[in-house]
């Protein structure tokens, strides 16, 4: 069976935000076994899975991405929507727009130290739409 739902994550400031609990709360009942595929419907935000215990990981990831893709570079042509826009698109390409998580025993089968992150690359963003597809 395949089930699909679309929901909006609450707006967040720029940065890396653990959203595992918010996503889990928005999902229908999960099958005993299967897969959850999450797709973010935006070009300036991403989803990823990473360490969920130490908040330093969140700030370190933000620092790393900002160094990899700095703002206000003279070679950017797409600049009408602000200094953070083109870098946000590039960061989204690096991080990706989807994650897949196994479902075991009716629960997300993430590792002990893993959580799902919303990577918000814009200074001011609205809520982000996520398509959740459950296969199982």
CATH architecture, by name, is: Sandwich
Number of strands: 8
Described by the principal axes of the CA atoms, the overall outline is elongated
CA-CA gap between termini: 5 Å
Largest sheet: 5 strands, antiparallel
Question: Structural class of the helices, strands and pairings?
Answer: alpha+beta
Q: What is the total domain count?
A: 1
The radius of gyration computed from the alpha-carbon positions, rounded to a whole number of angstroms, is 16 Å
Q: What's the rounded overall pLDDT mean?
A: 97
CATH topology (fold) name: Jelly Rolls
Determine and state the CATH class.
Mainly Beta
Order of helices and strands: EEHEEHHEEEE
Instruction: Tally the helices.
Output: 3
Low-confidence stretches: none
Give the proportion of residues in helices: 10-25%
Strand order of the largest sheet: 1-8-3-5-6
